[in-house]
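Handoff note, outgoing to incoming analyst
You'll be picking up this chain. Sequence as last confirmed:
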Amino acid sequence: GNLHVCSLMGTVDPNLQMEGNFNCDLSSMPDEQNANEYYYDQQYFNLNLVRPPRVQLSYAGRSREKEMFEADTLELTCTAENAFPSPNITWYLNSQPIQFSDDSFSITSTDGPRLRGEE
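Most recent structure output, in case you need it:
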C-alpha cells in the first residue's frame, strides 16, 4: 500500500487560543473493487497549554525570619506572575492549610480569578 502523510507544525501561542482538541480526519473515495464503500477514520490529540509562573513572596523587611509580639499584624503577599493557566494559591502554616473560617487570618486582597481558602 501507499503511505500518505500530512504533518502540521507551528509555534504554541496562548494568544491564538491553540488549547484544545486537534483531530486528523481521513476520508477516501471508493476503490474500483468496492465502488460503494467510502473509508473514514479520525484520530485526536488534546493540547493543554501551560506556562510556569514566577512565584514571589513579599513581606515587610528583608530577612525570611521575624520576631513579632502578640497582636502585631503580619502581612504576606504571594504572587504568581505569567502563569498559564491561572494558578490556585493556597496558604499553609507548619505544613497545614490555613483555615480562613476563624478570625486568625483573612485574605486582604486578590488579583486574579481563583484563590483557594476564600470560599
